[in-house]
Amino acid sequence: MQTQCSKCGGKGKQVKHACKTCGGARVVRAEETYTVHIERGASKGTRINFENEGEQSPDYEAGDLVVQLLEREPQLWEDEADRCDGNFFRRKGKDLFWREVLSLREAWMGDWSRNLTHMDGHIVRLGRKRGQVVQPGLVEVVKGEGMPIYHKEQDESSSGGDDFGALHVEYVVVLPDQMDKGMEKEFWEIWDKHRRKAKIDLETEQGRPVRKQEL
Question: Which helix (H) or strand (E) holds 124?
Fold first, then answer.
């Protein structure tokens, strides 16, 4: 049976007069503080290396200290000054995604505006003029309002400036659960009048087959 020497650790020699600080191990454990600089637009999984700052020993060359970035889940703000819609953006690469909810009136009639507070505090204005219709599920692409493009992902032809991705806004239209009788009557009369004036055939508009007239 063979085993490693518990006194010398298999080195074949032993420190006769051990240092009181390291106990003869030639190294001591201590806490070190490092400052991590995160580039704008760095994505989840980005690795930052501190060369030769890993485990150290006189017997081998020190390795690297590797810091890997993670993304924190969206959290509600405790202070009103920290309120930011950008906390709830979803990210995919250099682009950001946001879901905006509209009422039936806003989607159909237009004449509305929204202010989105971005992560750095600036305002992104969304809106439609009167008469501009928003279809359910429509995705509006706002260029230049996404994440800063990480310098390692920029093309060689890029000027190296603050280039940004896009903000994708998906519109969700919420229909009312019910209408009162007066509203339903007025709505139907207006729609029926418009349908007759424009000569809209509901069956044709809905893709139904045209009925053959009986002789």
Answer: strand 123-128
Q: Quickly state the pLDDT bin for 156 (edges 50, 70, 90).
A: very low
Looking at residue 202, its pLDDT comes to 65
- Mean pLDDT computed over 142-150: 91
Which residues lie across from 200 on neighbouring strands? none
pLDDT of amino acid 81: 66
Instruction: Give the rounded distance of the alpha carbon of 100 from its chain centre.
Output: 15
- Domain span(s) for CATH 2.60.260.20 in the chain: 80-174
- Strand spans (E) along 163-215: 164-174
Q: Strand 112-117 to strand 123-128: parallel, antiparallel, or no bridges (unpaired)? A: antiparallel
Please give the CATH topology (third level) of the domain spanning 80-174. HSP40/DNAj peptide-binding domain (2.60.260)
Cβ pair 96, 140 in contact under 8 A: no
